């Protein structure tokens, strides 16, 4: 028997047209997008399927949109009897993982992540912070470069997403971020500025976490039916109180994604299914451990391939 983890993508996985083919083939997916519209109070479905891309990319729009498609794909897998032994999600994706684990309902999660996106965007003035992917360096090297850039500029930058070997995303004030990118190139790595407008998962987002705490206090979280691996600790979490605390911390703490995957592998997970738009997490998996089975579902074709594959390993 395979031990299966469902993985859910985070911000940046969105694209115009996502979910359209799936909704045409499966009425239940179309209904989820209709429900998403009702929950956010405007035609977010049209943004998903027709754009414009710049509007879809806005943090408060892409977060509920990605969650909606992720949950729709999840439900199609569950209908076929494919269930996870453990779940995890990258940043925003942790909310989809919590829906999969029964901690949140879809109806609770959509408005919650829309608020989360708004709070994260408003925590730092536009133009004063950002993020960059540093490639070809170790996590230890990146941490050293962040500390040096902070000293030299008097501003803040830190590791934000420890995704896989050779890729760490850093976040911080623009001046420190740019200096860190330059230092990374000098050290023999590469630096790619990300198309985001805030330094997510850095201590600069602490005000967003404080606002999110109020929203989370109003939501009745439930005990997880399957373990969820927390971004903050790279460890399992099941209890509502701890889940709530870690979701608040997650906004301003680094995402320990590589460590999360390695924890699951060490505990016997041999099959990972990325559930939702794009294939970013599948790419990370192949860099972390080429020996695990990495699958992905976001459209009718990929769903059929996943069901065929899992039918042979479950």
UniProtKB/TrEMBL annotation:
GO terms for cellular component: cytosol. One of its GO terms (molecular function) is [acyl-carrier-protein] S-malonyltransferase activity. InterPro entries: Ac_transferase_dom_sf (IPR001227), Acyl_transferase_dom (IPR014043), Acyl_Trfase/lysoPLipase (IPR016035), Mal-CoA-ACP_Trans/PKS_FabD (IPR050858), Malonyl_CoA-ACP_transAc (IPR024925), Malonyl_CoA-ACP_transAc_FabD (IPR004410), Malonyl_transacylase_ACP-bd (IPR016036). The active site is at 91, 201. It comes from Symbiobacterium thermophilum. Pfam families: Acyl_transf_1. It comes from the Bacteria. This is Malonyl CoA-acyl carrier protein transacylase. Belongs to the fabD family. Its EC number is 2.3.1.39. GO terms for biological process: fatty acid biosynthetic process. Residues 7-314 form the Malonyl-CoA:ACP transacylase (MAT) domain.
